[in-house]
Amino acid sequence: MKIATILLSDDGKIIETGGYAESVLGEDRYDLIGIPISELLQVDKEGRSDCFSYLKNSIGEKIVVTNAIDGRSLEVAVIAEPEFARDAMKLIVSSVSTQNDLLDKREKLLAMFCHDIRSPLNSVMGFLQLLQMGTYGNLESQGAKSLEIAERSTRRMISMAETLLAFESMKSGMIRLNIGNTCLVEVIEKALTAIDLQARKKNLRFKFDLPTSVKIAADAERLIQVVFNLLDNAVKNAPEGSQITIKLEGFADSYEISVCDLGPGIAPQYQELIFKPFFQIDSSGGGFGLGLALCRTLIEQHGGKIGVISEPGAGSIFWFKVPRVQTVENFIPSLKSDSVKGESINSMSSSN
What we know:
Elements: E1 3-8, E2 14-19, H1 21-25, H2 29-32, E3 41-42, H3 51-56, E4 62-67, E5 73-80, E6 89-95, H4 96-132, H5 141-171, E7 180-183, H6 184-201, E8 205-209, E9 215-218, H7 220-237, E10 243-250, E11 254-261, H8 291-301, E12 305-310, E13 316-323
Parallel strand pairs: 8-10
Antiparallel strand pairs: 1-2, 1-6, 3-4, 4-5, 5-6, 7-9, 10-11, 11-13, 12-13
């Protein structure tokens, strides 16, 4: 991946460029010397925000900005350079499109890997379950605990493989929704049951704002998957002992489900990117970064929308809306046509 480096003075002017500056930035490196960084990079395409001030507030972070010259998206790592000048900064810049090419290659490699590893993992799981059943003799308590850990880890690996394969199938139009009469309150309750153990470990509290019953035409299992994924994100990010709020609201033409946590929040430049495949703000939690991408695809297949409202330090509200369709016959005809080919996948993980 080609990168460029930019050294900025304490008043926001370009002092020096390096690396693949001409290729990444689209200008002769010497022509850039002395110009304000705001003439090269913009926080938004309209150039309304002061880029230099934004960069100063983003030291130690990676941000996404727009190249003012050609409109391309660029990822920038901002590093303080106090030994040069008090407010001097170094920028490490790479093209998002170049990163997307790398992501495409990684995506294909992971799909091949997951397809090949799923069968042996299922075999391992089968033997572990036989051990738990005592088929080969009883285990002492410590052995039983170790076996439980091995079984849980194997199940997670299988789940991750199925997540990626399901995403590949969905991209290829190989997923068919199973539309039926769906109670949205029951969808939320089932997702809450699935996440309960994880929430208990952090002593989290759930607050509900739900009507008694709301029924629409939808794929119940897919919506449970989406709600579980949003709850899973909230549990991971919520401070220990805090509260997570779940709401179900009705509008003229849709219903909205939202999940609110009191976690660290999400910076504006990442709020659209987190719904893209394989994008992760923090990869330390494991997974492929596919959970929210799967959610978006499933909700859009229902004719709905999904998004997030968040500010750094102020928590996040993930929400999605689905149409207020009452009967299966009236459900988004275009998605019930032969243009969606292939068979349903029975189960998909929603882990991130």
